[in-house]
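Ticket #308: bound-state structure for Phenylacetyl coenzyme A.
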Amino acid sequence: MSEEQKLQEFQKRIDAGEIIEPKDWMPEKYKKQLVRMMSQHAHSEIVGMLPEGNWITRAPNLRRKMALIAKVQDEAGHGLYIYSATESFGVSRQELIDQLLEGKAKYSSIFNYPTLTWADIGVIGWLVDGAAIVNQTMLAKSSFGPYARAMIRICKEENFHKKQGFEIVATLADGTDEQKTMVQDAVNRWWQPSLMMFGPPDNDSPNSAELMRWKVKLQSNDDLRQRFVDLTVPQAKAVNLTLPDPDLKFNEETGHWDFGKIDWDEFWRVVKGSGQMNKARLKARRDAHKNGAWVREAAEAYAAKHKN
Ligand code: FAQ
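RESOLUTION: The complex was predicted; output attached.
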């Protein structure tokens, strides 16, 4: 079969809704796109532990501390599932981690913002995990089997994360004036960055057309962003919080919530490394890697000793 015929057969399988497994024939570009996307996703889960990890020692009580430790640990697990799914292409986790530590890899823009107060932890669970669920529920139906299967389990855990975050938000929103002010301030700071998580607008998204043709992505960045806004507006109303957007308005014709302009200049600044926390995040990952060298050496020595 010629390359062209193989490509046509592959597209037929995709169009018929078949799931692609690692040993199946696939175009090099399909593999390349998935390695790009999955490695960025895995890195996001690992770097995503840092903003919340920042509050573990300062959680307001034991119950909150236990839930937060479990959540941060879950994010590490998500990173590992996705690195493993990427290994099914023969790309090692080490290679991907090296790219992250060398500053050559992308991870989600959202994790380059600081967590200034305890309310940020609630708002991350509500908005950031909420946005991740909208995106990942789609990816659970993606055409590449190992990624889709990782997403099913991850989404179950993210749902728990979202609920614990919303509960923190609801508690603060029903608390003292100081607590209400604190949680509203956190919503004001995290709203736009959460919308940016879905990626650039469709007309400025170079990868979308190919990813959608191959059913890696089943919905566009803008469609998912709209779904997130539609789901979140009633949740904000339920806890008497205001989403910081004067243009937010229900559109009777479309049945969706219209929203104001997103600051895409800021998005690209953050993606290119000039966000508030980019340098600190990379430093934290590099330090962790360096400080963990003895664990890797011990594991290797143990494995060598027990080889037979
Ligand atoms: N940040 O052509 P497109 C989580 C890049 S959830 C940074 O539209 P695509 C859970 C993009 O890579 C967060 N870069 O790209 C959690 C591309 O650059 P490249 C992670 C971004 O792939 C919660 C360029 O812009 N989730 O971690 C971003 O079609 C709480 C052009 O963009 C995922 O990664 C961004 N926001 O669509 C953890 C989900 N957006 O590579 C801890 C999987 C775009 O060409 C605590 N990924 N870029 O140089 C996806 O669904 C997609 O890759 C998108 C981007 C939607 C992110």
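RESOLUTION NOTES: The first helix runs from residue 3 to 15.
TICKET STATUS: resolved
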